[in-house]
Give the backbone structure.
Amino acid sequence: MKQKSEMKNGSRTYHDQIKHLIQIGVALSGEKNINRLLEIIVDESRKLTNADAGTLYIMSDDETKLQFAIVQNNSLNIRMGGTGGVITWPDVNLINKDGRVNKANVSAYVAISGKTINIADVYDVQGFNFEGTKQFDKKTGYRSKSMLVSPLRNYENDIIGVLQLLNALDPITGEVINFSPESQEIILFLASQAAVALSNSHLIHDLESLFELFIKTIATTIDEKSPYTSGHISRVAELTVTIADKINETQQGCFAAVIFSDDQMRELRMAAWLHDVGKITTPEYVIDKKTKLQTVHDRIHEVKTRLKLIKKDYLPATKSANKDLRADKTTRSADAEIKALDKEYQFLMEVNKGEEFLSDENIARIKKIAQRELCVDGKIRPLLSEEEVYNLCVRRGTLNEEELNLIHNHALVTHKILAGLPFPKKLRHVADYAVAHHENIDGSGYPFGLKGDEIPLQSRIIALADVFEALTADRPYRKGKTLSEALRIMELMVKDKHIDQDLFEFFIKEKIYTDYAKREMMPQQVDI
């Protein structure tokens, strides 16, 4: 009867251990935080073997060292590594200075050989050097004794770490005992599970890092298409994240209840990095168009040459190349006419820069100047061609309507590129957030004419960052605005319902622009 009772109790214990191992496997496979995953490995290993202490080493990338990841000692109340902070202890070298394999250190030996080592007493063992352990004991008053050291192998059978357990405790007396063969089998099984979970976690982390780095590389490449937009995307992405971080921190106002999770922050960051990916198809001559008449070169110089030809008609007859035209000129004196031509050139040169808004009066003046005639190769032609007049009459900036459409088209191209990518579920809104950063609150934006709450908050954040960066950075046709000028323009854009009012007010109230201005703007621009 007694034997049957012991078997029953033993069977129940074994069943509980199996159940616990299954639970551990589920926990390991479901843990996303690598630091917490490392802690779970050591915590559960100690529970299953009733070990007082445990250390987890991770193989270095170059496979020459073991790096401390987790150090735990219940008796000494030590918890280091993982979520408990960085461990500053030196790494364990797998190769000695003389080039020989380090077989004296038990953890290094296990990492090299792949064998599991079970030691009854580290003070009474041959073949391994435990001077470091003894020094630790002397310093802390601890007594290290039994030790179980096992390798962690990934799915490719590579050793990625070492698990070291110290001082198995009798569950009844609390005395230090040897690690049993059963404990050794359990740890081998758990180490295998842990290695797979750790490898998967590292693989996911590495893929995510590679993905983000690839995105940043693409964005940087697009930025570098033009010296004027170099750094634009990275600055917008950084400012976008700063605004989102501030929203997460605030506990008052309209954003008090808004909290972006880590995944949502990653999604927003990627969207900000990709918001201009469509510009990969935008011609450089449009992005770099510094003046209204610029193509391969600035054609304002050709206009100057033509005006010089006209001016020759007002010079003395002996120097004139077009005597037959002189009779058709106005009755004004030659000097006055030459001065008028000089003024007209200065006017056209300023208009060509595109720095100021062009009024109806100035457009009429351009068209009148264009009607001046000159003789080239015996043929009479107007001073300006229809195409030159069209470009000079652009009211704001340097781009004509067709070129603006090319610029605006980058948003649609962005949508086409990103919508076709199989983003994982937690990043499924990247395309939506990126493409909508040119939508306006009143519905007048592009590419889809979204308005109000139809525009995601994340897109509105990117839009605010994009506008602020664009206003304060140099562009082909103008220098960057001062801080006060930029904020005043943005205030007008709020009134015109182009950018989000709540976000702009939050941007001002929290002075989010301050650090950005110090870091990215010229000192003379920072006038607030």
Notes: Residues 1-12, 317-332 have pLDDT under 50 and may be disordered. Residues 237 and 273 are 6 Å apart (CA to CA). Residues 181-223 form the longest helix (43 residues).
